[in-house]
Amino acid sequence: MALTVVGSIAFDSVRTPFGERDRMLGGSAVHFALAASFFTEVRVVGPVGEDFGAEEIAVLEDRGVETADIERVPGGETFFWRGHYEHDLNVAHTDDTQLNVFADFEPKLSDGSRAARTLFLGNIQPDLQRRVRAEATGASFAALDSMNLWIEIAKDALLAAIGEVDCVLLNDAELRMLTGEPNLIQAARSVIERGPRIVVAKRGEYGAALFTAEDTFAIPALPLEEVRDPTGAGDSFAGGFLGYLDGEGAGDPTPEQLRRAMVLGSVMASFNVEDFGTERVQRLQRPEIDARVGEFKALTHFEE
Ligand code: AMP
Questions:
Q1: 52, 24, 284: which is closest to 264 by C-alpha?
Q2: Model confidence pLDDT, tens digit, residues 198-233
Q3: Are 121 and 149 in contact (CB under 8 A)?
Q4: What is the pLDDT at residue 1?
């Protein structure tokens, strides 16, 4: 079992109605890796600058994440994102994106990362996602996430990348924007026609929906009293979802495994949003995950 992830490794400056943080550790690959690390062996691929210190690497290594393929670029600066959220935390605004070391990134996978059975192409420029997909020759199951920015400025490359993976995870709004289909089911079907067998629509505080040829499944998000920062929720969902499938050895997941993966994705996202950046997941303990799965079961169970 092993899972390779490529995606942004970032410093994030974030403001929400509940507070703010300047240059905290973030990025799609980081949020994903921390969540997935509870279920399987995770390897992160991506560049950082000289401003990325031992303290940041330690956050990943403390969770057992393999960091040998994190490349430190001499004289470079780490990817930077600044954003804020409105009173309605579903509404996010990007105020600044600095690609920095990602602008000239040439993905190089070590033998270990190339051999991993599962691959997650986290949110980065879609041509980079395609290059990593081509290099990860051992991956029999590949999934991809993206965002509105790439749909706007690199749609053709993104559609090509989508044609090369087994599973796509996107926000419902992004699925509609990508396909031009206002109806979510039609939008998911249109993605499936391009190649992927599995489409997951992430719906923020409303939960997530799964679409395959055999199954449609939807779950709510766990109702939480304490939500401080939604940054990284989507990546934590993907980390729980794919980390669980890889840990189960599910190269060709059954409908039952996919449903359980949806719950673990939601559970990991629910922890992520309880505090800023990676703060909550860094102090998370495995029994808390199991307890929350139980809460989920109770929340969604009913007798006919
Ligand atoms: P999400 O899980 O969708 O909330 O993703 C949040 C993470 O995405 C943040 O930690 C950012 O560093 C990262 N991010 C924001 N914009 C971009 C971008 N254009 N490319 C790659 N990563 C990004």
A1: 284
A2: 999 999 889 999 999 989 999 999 999 989 999 999
A3: no
A4: 83
Q: How far apart (Å, rounded) are the C-alpha atoms in residues 81 and 14?
A: 8
Q: Work out the mean pLDDT of the chain and round it to a whole number.
A: 96
Helix 172-179 crosses helix 155-162 at what angle (to 10 degrees)?
110
Q: Find the residues whose C-beta lies inside 6 A of ligand 1.
A: 8, 10, 12, 26-28, 31, 81, 97, 123-124, 149, 231-235
For atom 1 of ligand 1, which residue has the closest CA? 232
Distance 216 CA to ligand 1 centre (A): 28
- Reported as a single tens digit per residue, the pLDDT across 55-82 is 999 999 999 999 999 999 999 999 999 9
Q: Which two tokens stand for residue 8?
A: 């942004």
- Cβ atoms of 73 and 101 closer than 8 Å: yes
Query: Taking residues 265-288, what's their average pLDDT?
Result: 97
What are the φ and ψ backbone dihedral angles of 116, each rounded to 5 degrees?
Answer: -60, 140
Rounded to the nearest whole angstrom, what is the distance from the C-alpha of residue 100 to the centroid of ligand 1? 14
Residue 271 tokens, joined? 């922890």
Mutation probe of ligand 1 site: the residue of 6, 11, 28, 56 with most atoms within 8 A of C-beta = 28
